[in-house]
Fold this protein.
Amino acid sequence: MSGQVIQAANQGAGSARGEAARGRILTAALRAFGEKGFKAATTREIAQAAGVNLPALKYYFGGKQGLYLACAREIASRYEARMRPSAGAAAEALTGSLAPAAARAHLKAVIGALAEQLLTDREAEVWTAFALREMADQGPAFDMLYAELWAPGIELTAQLVARAKGQTTPDEAARIEALTLISRLTAFSVARPVALRAMGWASLDAARLRTIRQEIDVQVDRIGGG
């Protein structure tokens, strides 16, 4: 092998190792910040959990706040990627003349996709813990999460609710209904132990998830007298 080929191979290997280290740091940080919050979690414990030294953490993220913001961006990016099929289709439909029945169909798809993510994805449990901490504390990532994650989701849902009611733009009532519809999912995500006990369920399996989604569909069908 020539020197250039060897150098390129070494650079590629180094880049792969760097990406792997960065990923481990993000994973450890998401869990630590979700469990303890921004102030209580330490960079030392995060670095130890990720199997790196403190200088590596600073190299990749510039410090604790940079790492925290990177975690928030990672959450927003992953949610966006997983919601893209249903949310993208709904957003495209909203650019045209969307009949109430079609709006309700898109709303079911969007809320259903969110339910699948919140209620069945073990990784999403870590993201939810992080987001809940940020909501409660309104820390360094609150504005970014609001702008890139929460606000777009609420706005899309409100637009669909408005169209389901035969409105062209959402009014205050439509926004309240959108927020209420989204927040119903927290009963089985954030408050899952309470919900399981209230329902007499040992766990949330696929059949029970279908039951929840069916009830969501019924609630969506009531919007606009559908």
Summary: The chain has ten helices and no strands. The chain has a mean pLDDT of 87. The first helix runs from residue 3 to 40.
